[in-house]
């Protein structure tokens, strides 16, 4: 069994920190190692607690989550930052992802979804809430693309996997639904990344939408 992910929570709302503390402490896959109430405290708290994953609010006084994410990534590029916010606009998500975050969740996510996202981030995956992912896809669809290249050759299984990624399914959920080993699903996703020259699940969905493979 892999080591539990060490988690630092950054949020200016005491009630949110209390709620996160309550359910993070009940799951042995994660360990809450510290809390910060503002972006200005993030790096000092991270130095003291050595987190694997930082749960980062976006809008905070003094220094917001985007700048705090940049600071964390400059301090330790191996530390994963997972944005957790009430905002679902695609530009908010894009801003923090460009700053170095590996994922973007909304605060109405269930405790199980948040913990699964932390575990996935710790394992090196990217995670984006289905609500935000759909906004990205719709924005790409509305922008249009009159010069889409021929669709690269994909297996039927890879097309199924892409469709499930677009629905926000995790690797484990995809494997269970398609009755394949999770390692097979991961290998197929790596192949899609290489074939399309993309780096993460969000880019897979955007490219699949451009190519007309999926439509949301």
Strand content: 5-15%
CATH 2nd-level architecture of the largest domain: 3-Layer(aba) Sandwich
For this structure, what is the CATH class of the largest domain? Alpha Beta
Low-confidence stretches: 143-149
What topology, given as strand order, has the largest sheet?
A: 2-1-3-4-5-6
What's the helical proportion of residues? 40-55%
Can you tell me the number of structural domains?
A: 2
Determine the oligomeric state from the structure.
Answer: single chain
Number of beta-strand segments: 6
Rg for CA atoms: 18 Å
Instruction: Name the helix and strand elements from N-terminus to C-terminus, one letter apiece.
Output: EHEHEHEHEHEHHHHH
Distance, first to last CA? 37 Å
> Which word captures the global form?
globular
> Helical region count?
10
The computed structural class is: alpha/beta
The CATH homology group name of the largest domain: Response regulator
Q: Whole-number average pLDDT?
A: 83
Give a short account of the largest sheet: 6 strands, parallel
What is CATH's topology name of the largest domain?
A: Rossmann fold
Protein name: Response regulator transcription factor
Keywords: DNA-binding, Phosphoprotein
InterPro entries: CheY-like_superfamily (IPR011006), NreC/VraR/RcsB-like_REC (IPR058245), Sig_transdc_resp-reg_C-effctor (IPR016032), Sig_transdc_resp-reg_receiver (IPR001789), Tscrpt_reg_LuxR_C (IPR000792), WalR-like (IPR039420)
Domain Response regulatory: 6-122
């Amino acid at each position: 069994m892999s080591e539990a992910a060490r988690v630092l929570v950054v949020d200016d709302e005491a009630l949110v920190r209390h709620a996160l503390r309550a359910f993070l402490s009940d799951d042995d896959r994660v360990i809450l190692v510290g809390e910060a109430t503002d972006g200005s405290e993030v790096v000092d708290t991270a130095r003291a607690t050595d987190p694997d994953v930082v749960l980062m609010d976006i809008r905070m006084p003094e220094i917001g989550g985007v700048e705090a994410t940049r600071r964390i990534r400059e301090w330790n590029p191996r530390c994963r930052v997972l944005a957790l916010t009430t905002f679902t606009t695609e530009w908010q998500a894009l801003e923090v992802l460009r700053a170095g975050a590996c994922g973007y969740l909304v605060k109405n996510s269930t405790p199980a979804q948040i913990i699964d996202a932390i575990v996935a981030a710790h394992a090196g995956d990217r995670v984006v809430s289905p609500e935000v992912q759909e906004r990205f896809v719709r924005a790409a669809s509305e922008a249009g693309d009159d010069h889409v290249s021929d669709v690269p050759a994909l297996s039927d299984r890879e097309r199924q996997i892409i469709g499930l990624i677009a629905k926000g399914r995790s690797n484990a959920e995809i494997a269970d639904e398609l009755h394949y080993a999770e390692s097979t699903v991961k290998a197929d996703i790596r192949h899609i990344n290489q074939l399309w020259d993309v780096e993460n699940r969000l880019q897979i969905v955007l490219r699949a939408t451009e190519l007309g493979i999926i439509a949301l």
